[in-house]
Amino acid sequence: MDPTSSSSIPSESSTSPTPASPSPPPITTPAASLLPKALFQQKPFPRSGSGSRSRTTISMSGNASRRSVIRALLLSAHKALLAAADLLGLLPQVMGGEGSSHGGERAAEKNFVELGNHWKAPFCEITLGLRASNEVDQGSRPRHDVGRAVVSLFNNLIGNETNDDVEAEFQNCCYILPRRSSFHMSDLRQIRDLVPAQSSQGFNLIVIDPPWENGSVHQKAAYPTLPNRYFFNLPVKELAHEDGALVVLWMTNREKLRMFVEKELLPGWGVTDVTPFYWLKVKPDGSLICDLDLFHHRPYECFLIGYINVDVDFQCTEKFKYLKSSQVIISVPGAHSRKPPLEKLLLEHIPGPKPAKCIELFARELTAGWISWGNEPLRFQDSLYFLKKTNNWCS
């Protein structure tokens, strides 16, 4: 996903608002737009999974070895970035922005987690409406304001089925809904509302960013977390398309969690042929955000990628490229826990029909063309996170 179709920026229209760039910047930049393919470091790496192929596993006694392999991989990727002077020059520009704040100033953001648990939640409504525009689309017809719709905010699948960005209003706050995006704001008890009636209508890309139990997160009180074993209840296999799905699971750097995920959680979901990827975080000048060897705060995160309903030994893979090795993506991080968009980076590795049907679980922002589920998917869709390029957007 590039910045014009990322989960924090609406459509590619030149009149669409673009994210503002306060400090720290509110969005992350996809590594695919920063580094050429030559700089995506690929290297054989121990893999996990319960597929038919034999896999090399790492025991607890091999933790030091795993860390040394990761360290070498990350240093190699960072060295490649520092050697690319043209890319280093782009980093400050990518994190900058032009235009005025789209939504002005506001005292505080809405706490959708608290609102969703309040007795008034069933009565909360959001107003959707298309922005007025005199521009002409590809069919040489002007786009019109088609009016407004009032719908229930919680426990309801809300979608923008147009090719334009939609503005939405809730309690005097403006939110931006990207083109062809949908969201379902609920807690874990309602997630099965998204399970398709038939597996042929399932998803080909499933991105999961769970609120893992983590001491540092609890201390910062940035967002509520769940006990790790709650995630066995996620209907990942039921969400997957019958012709295959690529599953992306974001992790913390705790070894105990990594072992739990590899040995129990992913097999419980039916995910096989797992490959680790790494997100290396840098400053706008290209330097690491902190020392690579800091114990409590490391400048990288891991995400594991595996397959569901795909037999890599027997299934024809002409329609997608099978992931075989670890990669490192590099970007400047944004607000707390916001991840870089991955769709375009992984596009050629997604099995099943095209265009891929994509969903993000525990989402805190929306992506054009995706369904986003969680208890605060509008968190970073507040107009305060966008820049205003035209005078005919939110009034």
Automatic annotation (TrEMBL):
One of the record's GO cellular component terms: nucleus
Renumbered residue ranges of the record's region Disordered: 1-62
Low complexity bias spans: 1-18, 47-62
Single GO term (MF): methyltransferase activity
Entry-linked InterPro entries: MT-A70-like
Skewed-composition ranges (Pro residues): 19-28
Family label: Belongs to the MT-A70-like family.
Annotated PANTHER family: N(6)-ADENINE-SPECIFIC METHYLTRANSFERASE METTL4, N6-ADENOSINE-METHYLTRANSFERASE
UniProt-recorded name of the protein: Methyltransferase-like protein 2 isoform X3
Organism: Ananas comosus (Pineapple)
